[in-house]
Amino acid sequence: MNYEWKLILAANHLRRGDLVAHATESVVGLGASVYSAAGFDKLMTLKSRSEAKKFLVIAANLAQVQEVADIEVPLQVEILESWPGAVTWVLPLCRQAPTWLASEEGEVAIRMTGHKQATQLCELSGPLVSTSANRAGKVPAKTLHRARTYFGQDVDFYLSGELGGNVRPSKIIHGISGNTIRE
Predict the structure, then answer these.
(1) So what's the pLDDT on residue 52?
(2) Which of 27, 37, 84, 121 has the maximal Cβ count within 10 Å?
């Protein structure tokens, strides 16, 4: 594939453990490599998150999903039919995945993104820990300008790109129980 230089630069930042602001299906997101403990810690600090509230993961393809989550669950067919797209599933964390991704129940929220740029970023850097670009209690950024206003130099790279057409964040469904966590 032929990637633009800014995308390659953003992926290099992610592989170094840096934070990148980038376009997603509905808002500007903040991403860190799932394999970078330093990037994960930076994201936790920046978002003022406690260990109990985890981030979701985005992936480019099924192989990347399987690096992080076990999809051999009762709703596997429904999961695969919903991807790529804006449906996040809570699934058991794989044994080989970084433990900092897991909830207390040993689960991770993950989706195969349908957003072109987010997919390309994951193809170049691997699956990403992802969250909306906003401070706690603030409206998620819909522009890089707003993300910069929130975070300034605390984010290492701002990747310009077009948001997807989704008005709302991804739907979140538990992959074993089928319960909807976020509509």
Answers:
(1) 66
(2) 121
Residue 154 domain boundaries: 5-182
Element at 171 (helix H, strand E):
strand 171-174
Contact 109, 119 (CB under 8 A): no
Cα dist. 109→23, 76, 123, 147, 182 in Å? 19, 14, 19, 23, 12
pLDDT at residue 53 greater than cutoff 90: no
CATH number of the domain residue 89 falls in: 3.90.870.10
Judge whether residue 3 has pLDDT over 90.
no
Q: Which residues contact 135 (CB under 8 A, 6 or more apart)?
A: 47, 48, 150
Residue type, 135: R
State how many domains the chain has: 1
User: What is this structure's pTM?
Assistant: 0.94
Backbone angles phi, psi at 175, to 5 degrees: -75, -15
Over residues 22-41, the mean pLDDT reads 96
